[in-house]
Design a protein that fits this description.
The chain is α/β, with parallel strands linked by helices. It has four helices and eight strands, in the order E-H-E-H-E-E-H-E-E-E-H-E. About 25% of the residues lie in helices and about 25% in strands. Helix 3 packs parallel to helix 4.
Length: about 140
């Protein structure tokens, strides 16, 4: 069975910044066709759950209180890339709009829920390394 990376929050793991999850039935149903590997770049990067929300500003990830957490986001993304390589993952399904996992659009750094075109830190790294990334809204493209 092919292995794919999945944002852990989409599988019901309470690892989001607010301490909650965003379970998606369509994503969970993929377990019948794929081996799902749950990942969370923020947690693997050493951040706590819950945590202060963060958004991408330029090439940095900044928390709402102004603290730069780019290092932790990059650390988690690199750990997930290692997991992907170890498991020969060619596909990832990641949470839309997230500063780690967003694909195509992310929050703009104003903390006003405004979106701009762009990808999250993890999404950028996976695509750069040849892994196809889909958001939970693109399951039909698999």
């Amino acid at each position: 069975m092919e292995k794919i990376l999945v944002s852990a929050c989409l599988l019901g793991v309470p690892c989001r910044y607010d301490g909650k999850s965003k379970p998606q039935q369509e994503v969970m149903a993929l377990k019948n066709k794929y081996e799902l590997i749950p990942v969370c770049a923020e947690v693997l990067g050493g951040l706590t759950t819950p945590r202060i929300g963060a958004e991408i500003i330029g090439n940095k990830v900044i928390r709402k209180d102004g603290v730069d957490v780019t290092y932790e986001y990059n650390k988690g993304a690199n750990k997930i890339l290692e997991i992907a390589k170890e498991n020969n993952c060619k596909i990832a399904i990641l949470k839309s709009k997230s500063p780690s996992c967003g694909k195509g659009e992310v929050y703009d750094g104003t903390f006003k829920r405004a979106l701009i075109k762009g990808d999250g830190i993890l999404t950028r790294l996976l695509i750069k390394n040849g892994i196809a990334v889909y958001s939970e809204k693109e399951i039909d493209k698999l």
